[in-house]
Amino acid sequence: xxxxxxxxxxxxxxxxxxxxxxxxxxxxxxxxxxxxxxxxxxxxxxxxxxxxxxxxxxxxxxxxxxxxxxxxxxxxxxxxxxxxxxxxxxxxxxxxxxxxxxxxxxxxxxxxxxxxxxxxxxxxxxxxxxxxxxxxxxxxxxxxxxxxxxxxxxxxxxxxxxxxxxxxxxxxxxxxxxxxxxxxxxxxxxxxxxx
Length: 195
What we know:
Blueprint: H1 27-39, E1 47-51, H2 57-64, E2 69-73, H3 77-94, E3 99-102, H4 106-112, E4 125-130, H5 138-151, E5 152-163, E6 175-183, E7 186-193
Parallel strand pairs: 1-2, 1-4, 2-3, 4-5
Antiparallel strand pairs: 5-7, 6-7
């Protein structure tokens, strides 16, 4: 069972999405990622988008560690319901609403921003956590990465989770590679806005 690792909601269990349609980030990978982020002040007071949120584990962890606002983006109904339950648990632990859920596709959210009532108002964000299904690839996926890069505030960070067995994804031209980390079957690409 996945859990919140640190912060205000530390130790609280997270609900999982039933079935095999999602691939949750392991606690080992999540702990390593957030240790890296926290050591560089990427969680305290930041605005976060968690794309392809699944259960919302990554975004909920960011909220527990001090993010100012987190939007979980998940288009599958059952997963979005789990996101809502996990968001409610973290918000309760924080004593205020930090985490919200957008039941929509990543493409729609990135294309319309605040025009359709996105809780974060379509404003630039400081940190994007993206854990898309591993089969996502090709030009359509590169377009999603470019749209995500365009949502970053100057100096913002995009963290992309992929299979360590797959070739490195094509990085949007506006982002600079800060680090690449491998944890078993998982590779994390950390790209920063160059503005």
